[in-house]
Structure formats: structure tokens, C-alpha cells
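Sequence only, no structure available. Ideas?
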Amino acid sequence: MDRKIIRLSKSCISEQEKTAVAKVLDKEYLGMGTDVQHFEEMLSEFFGRPAVCVVNGTASLHLALQACNIGVGDEVLVPSLTYVASFQAISATGAKPIACDIDEETCVLDWRDAQKRITSRTKAIMPVHYCGGVGDLEGIYNLAAKHNLRVVEDAAHAFGTLHKEKRIGSFGDVVCFSFDGIKNITSGEGGCIVSSDEEVISKLRDGRLLGVEKDTKKRFAGQRSWEFDVTSQGWRYHMSNIMGAIGKVQFERFPGLASKRQQLAFYYDEMLSKLEQVTCLQRDYHVVVPHIYVIKIKGLKNRKALQESLESKGIQTGIHYQPNHQLSFYNDTNILPLPITDKVYPTLLTLPLHPDLSIEDVEYVCTELKKYLDDA
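Reply:
I predicted one. C-alpha cells follow.
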């Protein structure tokens, strides 16, 4: 019998989510209403400050930047090693993403490198919490304070992660999360922005509804605004009740989902520590809830061949991520070199991680990886 496919990532859905969606369908009110309101309230209580739900994580970054008055002619510091969504959100405002290097051990933004790239046009810095880790967040905020920069955290990978005993999102300037199908919790698609800045929160609430002022209250009451004013650019970025219903159930399941992710990551670390060629990222899974599990492989000459070999054994793998400064749209020959990013990227490999994975699956993945590296 063929072995089952060990998926790189997947949506982990129970009957509870299906029942919740069915209830929304039965109500026949699928737009932004009470289910989104309740999910938003749950998140606001979780973070201890206002959360605004939107249609996806990219929209959360775009709206957050816009609410911080980032626009044409501005520059935003961001690590090159991130999904293109981070860069697209910046360029969508008319601003320019400035690719920065990473710390070699943690693979998150190196604020010392970012400091070298600050100009008179720099208005914000976007640390990306890669694999759930945050690195030297104090260093980033100190840099921002010194140069009067807004900080928009891309915390798409870090829902539930703690830093110095505080939940990511419960502090800081503006923090953005993704709830797409494979994140730490999902609402199918979706995301949210968290901040204590009342002006930013107000702009976010209107901005997600095409700039229609104070329309959020009407939507949550099952109504809509027929006569209104619009004073700024908005977008159709609101969350739907279907997404809110899924999100509420996932939020209630989160303690178990988080614990499983941490357990699997701990076991990967234990198993892979025995492989000389493999370096695990520096993460403390007592406090980090990992979205993905990435390793570095020394002397890896043919990553594609390794991936194909593991695929033939029923193991899916990934690469997180191709650096954005290598993409045609963001390739800028005038930028300073990114030596660490260029050095680390070819060594990266993402192994399967999701709550439906078993310890036996992790053992199998590590065993097959070892076999390949021993024979290479």
C-alpha cells in the first residue's frame, strides 16, 4: 500500500467549523455582520486592545500602512526574506519597500542593517515575525523611536507567540495578522490589525469599507449606510460572516492547535539536532507558536533534487521564501548588498508542520531526510 502524503501544510478543520458555516448560510446574511463583530470582540479581548478584522493578511498590512499615512514618495524598511505580500502591501500604498538583510541565526530583520538604509524618505519599518520568531524587537523599536518611524509588524506567522511574557499583538505600534487557510488559526481567509492608536483604528474601520465613514456600526447591526460621506481612499477589505464564524471556532480551539504545533516543533528540533548538516532556527517553542518549520542545510548543492526525493517518499516540502530583491518588480540595482540573505536562502528548506501531523510523521520525515543527506 502506498504511504499517505505528508502535506507541507493544511487547513485543520473540525465539524465545529462546518456547523458554524452552515448556521451562517441558513441565516442568509453572508456579509460583514454579527459573526465578524463577535470574532473581533474575541480578538480584542485576547490582545487587550482593539482589533479590526479584514479580508486577508495582505489587506491588513496595506490598510495599516495607509492608516499610518504611508504613501507616495515614502520608504518602508522590510526584510527581503519574506513572502511577496509584505512588499506588495507597501508598494500598494505608493511607497517603496527597501529590502533589508536578516540576522543569520534567527532569519528575522537585522535592525543594524536596516539602520544603514534609512534616508529622509524613510517613514516606517516592517519587521516580519518569520516562523513565529521576533528576534530583537526592542532593537527595532529603539531604532524606530530614534528616527521617528512607525512600526507595522507583519505577525502573520506569530499568532499566539509570546515575547518577554507578553503576547505579540498586545503591545507595540501596529501589529498585523493573517488568518488564511494554513495559519495558526484560520478564518478561511482573513486577517486583523491591532493597535492602541485610536486614530489608526478609526481609519482602519472606515478604510475596510471603501472609506464609508462609521459604516462598521451599521454593518454589525445588520444594516448599511445609504447616505454617507467618504473623505479618504478606502478598499473592499471587510471580513464576511462566513469567515468570522470559522474564526470564532478556530479561536476557541487555538490552545490545542498551538500546543500541537509547539510539540511537533520541539520534536523536530530533537530529531534534527542529531544531523550534522542541519541547523534548526533559534526558536523557544515554550513561547513561540510556529506557523512553519524551516531548517538550514549546510553544503546543500541541489535543493530541488532533495525536494523531489522527499516527494517520492510522500513528503511535501517548501521554500520560505525567495528573497524579494531577486524578483523583477522589486529588483533595485542601487540597493546595498544583502549578503546574509543571499547566503542563507539557498540553504533553506521548510518541512511539514500542521496540527494534523503526528509524531510518527515527524520521525518519518527526519529519517528520510537523514537517508538523503547520508547518501548525498
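The chain is about 40% helix and 15% strand.
Hope that gets you unstuck.
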